Amino acid sequence: MAFKLYCLLLLVRFLWVFQPQPGYIHPDEFFQNPEPLAGDIFGYDVHRTWEFNKTQLTRSVFFPSLTSGISFLVLKTLSEADLLTITPALLLIFPRLAMVLCSLSTDFCIYNISKLLKFNPEKCLNIFASSYIVLVFCSRTFSNSIEVGVYALILLMVVDSRQKQLVPQAQSKKEKGRSLPRRRNPKGRGKVKNITLTPLNFIKYNLDVDNLSSHGIHPQVTHFFVNLPMLCLPLYVSFFTEVFAVYFGKGKASRPTFTSSTSRAFLGLCFFTPVLLISIFPHQEARFVMPAVIPLILLYSEFVTFPNGFPNVPWIAWNLLGCLIFGLLHQAGMIPCLAHINGMLVKQPSAEPVSHHVVFFHTYMPPRHLLMRSLNLKGRASELHIQT
Q: Does the pTM exceed 0.90?
């Protein structure tokens, strides 16, 4: 039953890519990933944000190139071979498909971590796969969605290398010679000048309150009191239930807690410490703490599932609500509107040059690559001017 449910949830994850969610969660979904890559690969008129300022680069193009970059190159190759026609829908679907494929690495990590720590792998996978974090956020081109997979991989590496300490009864195989090979660099070779450390620039930027004032300043407890409950309320309640049980000494003797289980204490710290550190930055959004949900899923999946592995009612209700709000309703008119404008421009008779003015009011910035307008407007039948 549990495995069949996981397969069904996996199918839903892919189906929601090919029938794209109209919800527009945040501009970063587009402007930190597919928007600049569409300009580079297709030559579209796009808006490049401050993160990609070459004089003070604060964001690496590595992960955007792996997701949207490769997706757009495949799309361009298929188009040049006359196998398909590029449309706004395909510009949306291909990068999201890449993100969903990347999210499978997190499933792999959760399964293996839960097996190593003697948790129930089926329950952990079902809670992860049924979370709206996965069904909505991890199918979008957010850098935070990539961070979820990276954090899960780091956890797996640590748990695998420290299995004896975390699970004393486990008999792990002795491994010899696991140290990484060293490569010597001869003098005078491989010297690099003008290194740009995008993480350092990112931290410097985000520690300056003046820089963040345009993005929004939040109380430094926002992650703990607003964002985490919004992402995974049932798991978050379970975490504090265990914290209070340990503090007041009311935990059940038959059930391991943070004080009696090394693995639970380790995962508890893997949840709490990163959230505490990232709370230093005064600009706080829910997606910033998505990776920290992984330890909660490992710790409390059994608390939000029935014995057969099926999620309980509070978990289902909370995640259906999240899917509805963020996947289907939030700023949901923007993407269909851009597709409509693109269709209107395509149908414009070539003999009638027209200048179109489109004004977006009280909305997020429209991702311009979905309009598929070329940078070079010379000789084109129509011009498009966007104002927000």
A: no
